[in-house]
Amino acid sequence: MIRAALLGLAIVATLAVRPAAAQDGGLEKQTMKFTERGSAIHVTGNVTAVFDARAYEKLENGLTSTVVIRIWVYPENRAKPTGFVLLHRQCVYDLWAELYTCALSGPGGRRTYKVKFRAEALKMLTGLDQVPVADTKDVELEERYVLALVAELNPVSKETLAEVRRWLSEGSGGGLDRGGSFFGSFVSVFVNLKIPEADRVVRIRSQPFYRPRPKPAPARPKEQP
């Protein structure tokens, strides 16, 4: 049976949200919602901080805006992740039709949407709505985990763009087995604090969460003789 409750995924600590420090190596702490559905852990949150006012204005200039989001799930106080996901989003404004065409690629494949308003395009680029980020088999019961995320607006690194193309061409499966330098870069962007090359970058860490041990089913009442 699907358990979509906040897992007891009990939020065991709440971290205050503060404005992201883009391009300066700062770390934003964001409270996110974690749920368990089927065989995966899903997250809901956003990376809106990767856009400043200027970048938001540029959404309607007719040029493509690209957001690349890398997500790791790892045990608290350890540097070795147990889950990795790549999301690739693009939106472009058609000046004649006055519509935004947005293409979103991730674990569920590629989907294209058309939206009317700039705020809707921003949500398409930065919203995280029930995104699967780890298999339940890799998340131990009652152990505390944390989600780490790097979002890049219009990345210019040739290595990053090559990894994105390879990942998308091979499909979204295989996380840790074929994460390549994307998976390995967890150490550089969260341990050695290397900042990727892009118009803007945000680094986000969630509050700790855990999967509670399921409660035993209540005993059935004895039948009366």
Walk me through what this model shows.
The protein has helices spanning 53-58, 118-126, 158-170, 180-190; strands at residues 28-30, 33-37, 40-46, 65-75, 83-94, 99-106, 109-115, 127-135, 145-155, 198-206. By secondary structure, the chain is an alpha+beta fold. It has one domain (28-206). Strands 1-10-9-4-5-6-7 form a seven-stranded mixed beta sheet, with helices on both faces.
Largest beta-sheet characterization? 7 strands, mixed
Low-confidence stretches: 1-25
Mean pLDDT: 80
Oligomer: single chain
For the CA atoms, what is the radius of gyration? 19 Å
Please give the order of strands in the largest beta sheet.
Answer: 1-10-9-4-5-6-7
Count every beta strand, where a strand is a DSSP E run of 2 or more residues: 10
Secondary structural class:
alpha+beta
Shape: globular
Q: H/E element string?
A: EEEHEEEEHEEHHE
| Helix count, DSSP H or I runs of 4 or more residues | 4
